[in-house]
Amino acid sequence: MKDFYVGSEVGQLRKVILHRPDLCLNRLTPSNCESLLFDDVLRIELAGKEHDAFQKVLRDNGTEVFLLHDLLEETLASTEAKNWILDHQVNKNRFGNDLAKDVRSHLSSMDNDNLARYLIGGLSVSELDSSLSKSMTLDMMSPSDFLIDPIPNHLFTRDTSCWIYGGVSMNPMAKAARKRETVHLRAIYNHHPMFKNSDFFTYFGDDDQNYDLSTIEGGDVLVIGRGTVLIGMSERTTPQGVEQLSRALFMTGQAKKVIALELPKARSCMHLDTVFTHMDIDCFTYYPDIMKGDIACWELTMGDNEELVTTRVKDGFIKAIERSLGVSELRLIPTGGDIYEAEREQWNDANNVLAVRPGVVVTYERNIHTIKNMQAAGIEVLTIPGEDLGRGRGGARCMSCPIQRDDI
């Protein structure tokens, strides 16, 4: 197997990128959490311990874990990479001439560990030595204002980039609060020693251009295997983005079919993997209130003259998945409990599970009713604490970016 290849959602998970909660989550407050796309503030110490438990479960099950902070720090050892990152985040259009110079100088004086910490965690006015600054912009800011906003959503490494068969999409993110995440992943994949000389395709997002409405987030992308990719069109992933990614997959020969689903544009259904994830070759967990049989569904393939062929699926997305996987009937395991318990558990990411190998998944221990349903269906469930991690509205799948996983 190649060093970097993701052939399915449920084959043995061998390598993954995670991000342990750090300064960026410590900066969350009741007044800024909404703009930073969080519903609540997290206790950083407890969230860190819960994340450590998540890492341990993965390592105990044969998965090599790489932490985003470490990868970014190691990438910054390259002068070319460091300059590229700073060029993309500190410039006169964002700060004005004088303040851009001050911020650039301050960041450049840091060692790589601290630079990674503040690029992810944010830089406040009070942390900048601004006594000699001539910036009018700075004069209009208070000491607690952020010059560089924290990026707490880096916790959800699934979204910013997603590996699909033999390549990666460096995703243009939908929300302004997450766009800088892609800068860090682009730098890592292009400059980190582990990646820069490796053989993989880059499908999408690795260009300095305005992607406009063509946005993709990895929580909507399921590599279900056997040459097929399932993508949800949610509040974060657009049909335009799906078409762009599909074309790249087909042109590189890395996929033969994309199944696209129309999802509600709602916070409770932010991504496909919050309501539908793969647990075994023929088995998915799903939230029945959203994943109904009449969801609009299309199949995308490559036609003549390298044109996309888009076909409306008339017999539903379940049949489309069964055909692609070559199984006679899917096993569909619903969110557990009564109507109230199921809604609560879906909100707490009961359906956002991460398979470490076929039929073995990681999920939050709090979702007891859904866990019972999974176990009754023969799924082995590995539980992790999530009393604080879960406040970020992301489960085990959201918090993981597989970079090497077996086919099915």
TrEMBL record:
UniProt-recorded Gene Ontology molecular function terms: arginine deiminase activity
The protein's Enzyme Commission number: 3.5.3.6
GO BP terms, alphabetized: L-arginine deiminase pathway
List of catalytic residues: 398 (amidino-cysteine intermediate)
Main EC class the enzyme belongs to: hydrolase
Protein's UniProt keywords contain Cytoplasm: yes
Membrane-crossing segments per the record: none
Keyword tags: Arginine metabolism, Cytoplasm, Hydrolase
GO cellular component, one term: cytoplasm
Gene3D superfamilies: Arginine deiminase, L-arginine/glycine Amidinotransferase, Chain A
Pfam families tied to this protein: ADI
Protein's UniProt keywords contain Cytoplasm: yes
Catalytic activity: L-arginine + H2O = L-citrulline + NH4(+)
Compartment(s): Cytoplasm
InterPro entries, A to Z: Arg_deiminase (IPR003876)
Pathway: Amino-acid degradation; L-arginine degradation via ADI pathway; carbamoyl phosphate from L-arginine: step 1/2
Predominant subcellular localization, coarse grouping: cytoplasm
NCBIfam families noted in UniProt: arcA, PRK01388.1
Record family assignment: Belongs to the arginine deiminase family.
HAMAP family: Arg_deiminase (MF_00242)
PANTHER family listed in its UniProt record: ARGININE DEIMINASE
Protein name per its UniProtKB record: Arginine deiminase
